[in-house]
Design brief:
single chain, 245 residues, alpha/beta, 6-stranded mixed beta sheet, 9 helices, 12% strand, elongated
């Protein structure tokens, strides 16, 4: 085990955080009103008595952005976790399907599947992860039958009071996860500061693009789904969203 160099984390974040901002901005600019409208429940908007095109556009856009950003930033945090572990335990990005990180400590080979938070998947997705863990164990033990392998679902934030799961893996969340991959009990708070690198500038650019999309989508929505009086044509929206034709 090597001592974690905080300056290396700072330099990594500053060199790579721009990727997150670029991906979220590119995703926003590629949005299409029809595609996002088809994924939303038109009955819910009517039940909430939504009366303006701008509000519908803002709600569907905000829901998309929230979900999309979580996925993009989750990928980015995975990269940070692998980088940190490589500096301390010589961990590597795994080549085994379904496994994100491999490293060895105290003669134990750890297989890590990294997720953003603790509530990341349904039962089917969790079963798929467990299957990936079992397959990875078989692959590793083909060349070394005595290898001690432990599987871990690592979550970048949150808590889990019962880390040992009945399906033969551990779940480490938040502080416990970052300490596990780095040996640093306080890493989970240390990494928050460098994440703000140029955040104000990057988010100003994002907000400008967001405003343009709101204005454009509102105009397009009003043109296509509002009548001459300016009222929302709910029948037309439902037909667009759900018609079998």
């Amino acid at each position: 085990m090597k001592k974690l160099n905080q300056e290396s984390i700072k330099k990594y974040v500053e060199a790579n955080i721009g990727t997150f901002h670029e991906r979220r901005l590119n995703s926003l600019n590629k949005l299409n009103l029809h595609k996002v409208l088809k994924r939303k429940n038109p009955y819910l908007f009517k039940a909430k008595n939504v009366l303006t095109a701008e509000r519908i556009v803002r709600e569907i856009l905000d829901a998309h952005i929230s979900s999309n950003e979580e996925a993009i930033f989750g990928d980015w945090l995975e990269g940070l976790a692998i980088f940190i572990n490589s500096k301390v335990y010589n961990g590597i990005k795994s080549g085994i399907p379904g496994i994100d990180l491999e490293f060895e400590k105290d003669k134990i080979r750890y297989l890590i599947s990294i997720k953003s938070g603790p509530n990341w998947g349904n039962s089917g997705q969790i079963n798929k992860m467990v299957l990936d863990f079992n397959n990875a164990r078989k692959i590793l033990r083909t060349s070394n039958s005595k290898l001690n392998v432990i599987a871990v679902n690592g979550c970048c934030y949150g808590r889990d009071r019962k880390p040992l799961k009945i399906k033969n893996y551990y779940k480490y969340c938040g502080q416990q996860f970052w300490e596990f991959i780095s040996g640093d009990n306080d890493l989970y708070t240390r990494i928050i500061k460098p994440l703000g690198y140029k955040a104000k500038q990057k988010n100003e650019n994002f907000q400008k693009a967001y405003a343009r999309i709101i204005n454009k989508f509102t105009l397009d929505f009003a043109t296509e789904f509002c009548d001459n009086n300016g009222d929302i044509n709910w029948v037309k929206i439902v037909e667009f969203n759900s018609s079998k034709d």
